[in-house]
């Protein structure tokens, strides 16, 4: 038995053993959620789009730059330092994807990156966005490409950073399968929300940044507690597990994207491997420019921000915005 399967087996056994403690687990999870929400309130505007709340942070002046975060994320991933870097020459609009951060879950339709893109685009329209550069990180890159597919005539350029944008071989492993299942959503997710330790959460963040180290202060600023809320955890598990079939639908249409596309990826990314995602994507899109960052992992906007900024500037120039 692999280590991951053993961990899942132990988690299931522990869940069953704690089955009679459901009320206590729910209360502990609720208490931790209340602390997280009080500690990390919305930093931007709460817009109403089709009856749903969408959290949007707007800073700076210049051409519009949309930032879309990845799995288990929120706008706080960008506001830690990257928004400050870019707001001097762009109007930066960071958006929480549906069900994450401070944006509402929109139900089963929200599992589609295409539907997510539609919702976020409507939110951007409320803010007066006309012809943006759309940047997506990790899962958010699929939403950025979906944005371009849905509205090619009004999307100036796309930038993908460590993008999960192509169907991948195999599956995501037993933990995602479990936490996206009916049993996992009902029984396992509350346990994780209630009992995962800060040390374990910091370990996971470190794995996402590897082989680079987590910037000082990032873990405290980001607010892992928001991602560990039961509803957010459930939505994220469902979104990630459902992504691959939507990428299969999107892939044949990538070649039709008419706008400049900048593809940025680290060759040491073990979360979203470059050979499965960035390189094949670059071959499909006629207007793509691929930049591979040697030795860089999954978080270039933190550990190589100058390279991400340069990709955005290239996209702006290629789109005639500068």
TrEMBL record:
InterPro entries, A to Z: AB_hydrolase_1 (IPR000073), AB_hydrolase_fold (IPR029058), AB_hydrolase_sf (IPR050266)
Record's signal peptide: 1-23
Keywords, in A-Z order: Signal
Record-annotated AB hydrolase-1 domain positions: 65-311
Record Pfam families: Abhydrolase_6
SUPFAM superfamilies in the record: alpha/beta-Hydrolases
Transmembrane feature ranges: none
Protein name as catalogued: Pimeloyl-ACP methyl ester carboxylesterase
Organism lineage string: Bacteria, Pseudomonadati, Pseudomonadota, Alphaproteobacteria, Rhodobacterales
